[in-house]
Amino acid sequence: MLKHCSPATVLAAAAVAAIAAAPASAKVEGDTIVLGSALSETGKYSTNGIHAKNGYNIAIDLINKTGGVKVGGKSYKLRVIYYDDESTPARGAQLAERLIKQDGVKYMLGPYSSGLTKAIAPVTEKYRIPMVEAEGASRSLFTKGYKYLFAVLSTSEQYLASSIQLAAEIADKAGKKRKDVKIAMAFENDPFSLDVRAGVVADIKRLGMSIVIDDRLPRDLSDMTATLTKVRALKPDLLVVSGHSKGAATAGRQIKELKIATPMVAMTHCESSKLVSKFGAAVDGFLCPTQWAETLSYKGPYFGSAADFDKKFKATFSGYKTVPYQSAQAAAAVLVWKDAFERANSFDKEKVREAISSTEMTTFYGRIKFSKAGNNIAKPMVLRQIQDGKYVVVAPSKWASHKVQHPRKVQ
Amino acid sequence: MASQKPAAPARTGFLSPAWLKSSGDGWTLLLMIALVCVVLVLISGQAQNNLTILQVAWQQNIQLLLDGLFIGAIFALAAYGLALVWGVMNVKNLCQGEYVIMGGYIAYYLYDIGIHPFVGLPVAIVFMFGFGWAIYVLVIRRVIDRDLFTSLLATFGIAIVLQQGLNLIFGPEVQTARSGLPTATVTLGGGAFTFAWIKLTAFLMCGALALAVVIFMKRSRMGQAIRATAQDARAARVMGIDTDRVYAFTYSLNAAICGAAGVLIAMIWVIQPFYGITHSIRSFVIVTAAGFGNLPGVITAGLGLGVAEQYSGFVLGADFQQATVVGMLLLVLIWRQIIENKHRRVVE
User: Fold this and answer.
1) Which residues of A touch B313 (CB under 8 A)?
2) d(CA A35, CA B314)
3) CA of A333: how far to CAs of A270, A344, A369, B28, B205, in Å?
4) Is there a contact between A408 and A286 (Cβ–Cβ < 8 Å)?
5) Residues in chain A within 8 Å Cβ distance of B50
6) Which residue in A220, A230, A256 is closest to B50 by CB distance?
7) How far, in Å, CA of B172 to CA of A8, rounded?
8) Distance between CA B316 and CA B313 in Å, rounded?
9) Mean pLDDT over residues B250-277, rounded?
């Protein structure tokens, strides 16, 4: 049952890597450009941390095999120094310091989760080391005026906002007044989920709908029957839930158990909580936002289309039935680095930073273009619905492959 | 075996019939709780709205009560284990919740390999009994005579090791074990409430387990030895009771009870390696409120806590669900202190 490598192995590997890279100025060694990243290989984020690492590695392999990064007429390979941050922010910050000061890393890839990114960004900022991150979506990362932080993913306030938009469209079609659309919200009391909530609230206000339940779920969440009982009493038109995988799992289980008949249910982390395999038909019709899906028609150089990436990823790493978007966006972050090095045509970190900030590329992961604050403004969140146990894109309509089922069928 | 002395006077416990009958102090406490509730409701418009919902859709009261009672029974089960260990050995077992979660993972593991999680109940009881025994021999025996903080630190350490161990073995994802039992919908006066058969089954299983433990404590040799040791360990030793074995048995019994509670939790809620702490806290609240030697007290406090959590989650919002638990503990402690101060004492 041991799914993860032991911490001892990881530590040993880290130690070896540290010794190998000991002489400072490791930014470019011979024909290799060295990137650094602290990733959660153990602890509570380990699953997604490893998804991210696989994403980084598949892109690095591809780049190294297909001619590398061309700077000044010479071809360079990419290599990453990884450390395990044990899913703790304090450790992440220490390791970032170590990567920069001891290992001499000048170019960083991000860690997993907003919390870790929040801990590491001040360090990279202090040393003026550019960091392209793919796994920290919190809006608050991009309100602090960081100059060296860039994110390829959509920020968290966009996560469920599309479901509000969809509810408005459905109400309009049915000839229902927008202010009669009742929305129930249950968000975990943590920075990420509260960001998601902020986006949802802003959209509800903008569209003039009304909030009937606004519950904050505790961190050690394993029961939300009280909230759901309220939902049953108030009969909202849309229920939105966000509380990481535990929130999705708890909601999935208890919506089924309490037979909650809300016609529209939207929540984050459907896939990472394995809703479909856990609860089967009971979660049919749930709406789940995602950064990326293999069915999207995005296409770019390097990996080809989203579907091509999906195929290649499954062939490279065994044990994946679906490719997590965490891996796709990690791979996209590596592509940003390659593109920026080549356009800067230099290893000077300020020049490379300039190049990153003027990135404008189309990839299998979607378009990438950074705002002044560093977040990607060219790629929308997509909304998928679980239909007959499969995730299909239903919004935004430009990329939708299926029509939204409304109201969802209640078992 | 010591002669059957009349049991030591039961330590008074919150919500136990003993104090309800005794004087007006109980009513003072109820008044305090009511006052706090009123204040909370007054300061929060949201809470008022939610109370209105409860009046209009009154069927939801039944839902909250049922859910509270069903889950409260499982809290009471784990708390009773803690009461045993605390009362008999004076060990404050901080890894209580981790034992519960371990039981949960046994059910999940069986479910994962295709065996019905109900089978997990006997398996968890046997396995956790053995596990408890091993922990006793390895750790607890060495700290049992030391001061309070040594045993607190030791069991806290065990809790951390168990959390990380479960995380390494099963990963950090949230898991559930599905019983496959259906949910019934009851329509009543224009509204509806549901109850899941698994919750009722778990409730009955809790009852059966509690009954089994009570009979065991009353009738069996070991049960009597445990009670004798709880009353006076030294005297029990003089009478020829092997108290070391009694301690080992008590500790293992607690682990087994927790394991059983965990199996039920995995089928009703969700489990994760780091979820033990909330179960530990609940157990401590219940035992502190009810006292150790007081099974009816533990049961009432457990059920009461379950219902209180559901109601506060509904009225005040889900973020207050656990705050209520701690708030109630605080009230109980304040009340206890007041009572304590009223007692006349011999001036030494």
Assistant:
1) 223-227
2) 50
3) 24, 16, 12, 63, 53
4) yes
5) 230
6) A230
7) 18
8) 6
9) 94
d(CA A372, CA A354): 11
Nearest CA in chain B to A218: B319
Q: Which residue has the tokens 């301690």?
A: B247
pLDDT value at position B179? 86
Whether residues B174 and A273 touch (CB distance < 8 A) is answered with yes
pLDDT category of residue A21 using cuts at 50, 70 and 90? very low
Domain boundaries, chain A: 7-154+294-369, 158-290+382-395
Question: What is the residue type of A106?
Answer: K
Q: Are B140 and B79 in contact (CB under 8 A)?
A: no
**Which of A226, A250, A256 is nearest residue B310 as measured by Cβ atoms?**
A226
Mutate to test the interface with A, among B62, B101, B170, B173 (most CBs of A within 10 A): B173
Interchain contact A186–B (C-beta under 8 A): yes
Domain at A7-154+294-369, CATH homologous superfamily: Response regulator (3.40.50.2300)
Residue A55 in this model has a pLDDT that exceeds 70: yes
Topology (CATH level 3) of domain A158-290+382-395: Rossmann fold (3.40.50)
Would you place residue B9 in the very low, low, confident or very high pLDDT band (cuts 50, 70, 90)? very low
Per-residue pLDDT of A270-289, as tens digits, reads 888 888 888 888 899 999 99
ipTM value for the complex: 0.78
Per residue, what are the HEC states of A309-368?
HHHHHHHHCCCCCCCCHHHHHHHHHHHHHHHHHHHHCCCCHHHHHHHHHCCEEEECCEEE
Give residue B42's pLDDT band: very low, low, confident or very high (50, 70, 90): low
